[in-house]
Design a protein that fits this description.
By secondary structure, this protein is of the alpha+beta class. The chain folds into two domains: 297 residues, no CATH class; 78 residues, Roll (Pdz3 Domain). Helix content is 48%, strand content 20%. The strands form two sheets. Strands 5, 6, 7, 8, 9 and 10 form a six-stranded antiparallel beta sheet that branches. Strand 1 and strand 2 form a beta hairpin. Helix 2 packs parallel to helix 5. It is elongated.
């Protein structure tokens, strides 16, 4: 019996890792890194971060949030319908395969799955899958409360991830301005994977995996079901710096998630407020992305060439430039006492003193500051800077 139990548990764990979303997101993260590196090498002859960075950070940054979400969802008794979970995952997989990660927000998946249940119930009421039918779903009952609250919590987590883990991975790319000059824009395309445990009613899972964790409350049985949830983010910063735009968007998304949770709680007394909460979440999340994109396309480039000096587009991690605190958008006016106006002059001036580097830098506010750094043999020969040229 113990061997059978162990086999069933391993089978359940294997089913999680064989989930199409889990497999697809691994390959997609590798692809995102590959195309980012390819574009950086085309523009600057060097990549900013290794190509597997997106894959390595896929779960590393999001697992604490997944743990908190699992505890909150299960601890609060937010019951997820099996049909809604399947449609939620199908929506996420479809968004993932489009490579258009502006639509890879869980609020879109949650809302589309919820309203898809409504159409299934109305037009395909006799549909059945492993004992589940649309007629079992009460969209004016518990589901009108749990889905908006879960979706709102996902939005809060999405906003926190965007605020804290996107600026560092902003990839610079060179664009032509209206005057024919080359300026820098910054694009972040990120994916996060959250293994979230949902509380599902019935014995659907235990019917196939007998020893899967299950408990009963009154006359109802419940199972804990782990589901891979993806969160995607894609945005270009042009007129604002990434460390200004992305945290700003993240805070707006967190506030939107909080509003969705509050309106969803009102559905305890008026179920239609749950429907309204999902619509509010979708509209506000879309508005945040659209407004940011329109504003960035219409504004002037924040990182563009200047009459005197070399403008920084990016700084390699661990390089002398990073140790000196140099930032994208700052302008190097002189190196070791020599005025520089292009990349070649910058490189030549650095080589004059192979052991020490003194810079005069014009920061983003237009203030001049002096910086210096000892250079070692293994350090990057150009301070690890990507410049606008």
């Amino acid at each position: 019996m113990s061997e059978k139990m162990m086999f069933d548990i391993l089978e359940a764990v294997a089913l999680f890792f064989l989930n199409p979303i889990f497999i697809a997101v691994l390959f997609t993260a590798v692809g995102v890194g590959y195309f980012r590196v390819k574009k950086e090498r085309r523009n600057f002859k060097v990549r900013l971060l290794p190509g597997l960075t997106e894959l390595k950070r896929l779960l590393a940054e999001s697992w604490p949030y997944a743990l908190v979400l699992s505890v909150l969802i299960s601890g609060a008794g937010l019951i997820a319908d099996p049909g809604w979970l399947v449609l939620f995952s199908a929506s996420a997989l479809l968004a993932l395969l489009t490579f258009y990660y502006k639509v890879a927000s869980p609020i879109y998946f949650a809302a589309s799955a919820f309203f898809a249940l409504y159409f299934l119930e109305k037009y395909m009421g006799d549909f059945e899958f492993r004992g589940w039918t649309p007629g079992q779903v009460d969209l004016l009952g518990d589901l009108s409360v749990t889905v908006p609250i879960i979706a709102g919590l996902f939005l809060v987590v999405e906003g926190l991830l965007i605020s804290r883990h996107t600026v560092r991975y902003a990839s610079p790319t060179l664009k032509y301005t209206n005057r024919g000059l080359r300026a820098a824009a910054f694009k972040t395309k990120r994916l996060w994977l959250l293994p979230v445990v949902f509380l599902v009613p019935g014995d659907m899972i235990s019917a196939f995996v007998p020893y899967w964790p299950q408990f009963t409350l009154g006359e109802r049985a419940f199972s804990f079901v782990p589901v891979p949830v993806i969160i995607g983010f894609s945005q270009v910063a042009r007129s604002l710096y990434p460390d200004v735009l992305f945290p700003k968007m993240g805070r707006a998304i967190v506030w939107t998630g909080g509003a969705v949770v509050v309106v969803g709680l009102v559905a305890l007394w008026m179920p239609l407020f749950g429907w309204a909460a999902l619509i509010i979440g979708v509209v506000c999340r879309a508005a945040i992305s659209i407004m940011a994109s329109v504003r960035e396309r219409q504004g002037v480039f924040a990182v563009s060439p200047r009459p005197a000096g070399v403008v920084i587009a990016g700084v390699l991690p661990g390089s002398p430039g990073e140790k000196m605190g140099l930032l994208p958008g700052e302008c190097i006016r002189s190196v070791n006492g020599l005025q520089v106006s292009n990349e070649k002059e910058l490189y030549d001036a650095i080589q004059l003193n192979a052991a020490h580097c003194r810079l005069q830098v014009l920061d983003r506010r237009g203030e001049v500051r002096l910086m210096q750094q000892v250079l070692y043999r293994h350090d990057h020969h150009r301070l690890g800077l990507l410049v606008v040229r």
